[in-house]
Amino acid sequence: MIPTTRPFRQPPAWQRALQDAVTDPAELLSLLGLGPEWLASARAAARRFPLKVPRGFVARMRRGDPQDPLLRQVLPLDAELDEVPGFGTDPVGDLAAKAGPGLLHKYAGRALLVTTGACAVHCRYCFRRHFPYEEENASRAGFGPALDAIRADPSVGEVILSGGDPLTLGDRRLATLFDGLREIPQVRRVRLHTRLPVVLPERIDAGFLAVWSALPLQKVIVVHANHAREIDAAVRTAVAGLRATDTIVLNQAVLLRGVNDQVGDLVDLSEALFEAGVLPYYLHVLDRVAGAAHFDLPLETAQRLAAELAARLPGYLVPRLVREEPGAAAKTVLPPASR
Length: 339
Hints:
Blueprint: H1 13-19, H2 25-31, H3 39-48, H4 55-58, H5 69-72, E1 98-100, E2 103-104, E3 110-114, H6 144-151, E4 158-162, H7 171-182, E5 189-193, H8 196-199, H9 206-213, E6 218-223, H10 233-243, E7 247-254, H11 263-276, E8 279-284, H12 299-312, E9 320-323, E10 332-333
Parallel strand pairs: 3-4, 4-5, 5-6, 6-7, 7-8, 8-9
Antiparallel strand pairs: 1-2, 2-3, 9-10
């Protein structure tokens, strides 16, 4: 007998974990043994920018510690509701750089695809927390118009996949995108920015690695970790899988008050990254996005920390301290404080 329906196929483990992410502030507080005094403000802030955090990332947090550096990155706070001068909804000038549907062109030789608005985790300092993903999302049109715009610009040698997070897309959609990129003759390199190898390392599974390794271009993946305790055995396994596909793996961090604003935090982060096979790349000062002012640090503090970090580590473990300025031709590299 010929079956009339397709057999049920269970989603891969990473999709099940993504669907099971914590989205209720009350549940997050309960999982971490924190009291109800945090709940009202968390719910108020989450109404503007929802809570989302994978359970595996929650498991790395310290129970009973509201100042845990991993928790501080994801817990909504009432400080997000404050209106602070100088903090806006488009802090890095994304919308002025639009070059096509979900396509941004800020820097010479590079184009950025906003592949999706979805993320595995909602970082409270996210510079795109107000981004209009419904309108500016290359995947809505099946990537075709954005790829056509890249093809029409012979100066573009590198395509940056961003979002949201590109790795929230399934393997088939990624394969379609990669097939389109490989057919553009001037594109030599694909750079993918993602938080998933850190917060949801099961995403780097055999299916993704097969699709990614088949891309016959130079490959760079930039992961995002801000604190050494984000790096565990599962993350190290994910990075090893990426490196086995001839991928350069870099890290960019954001300097955040209460998370990594002591030089020891930054030293430990660089050491943990390098032990995992990741090279520290950028240390961003905070993009001044509305809702994140409570994470900001004075520029002088950032430069002092950069100098102290350089004094304690070999040069290849010292990320460049940078700031993104709307309309600038490149990231602004900030000099460390003079000693």
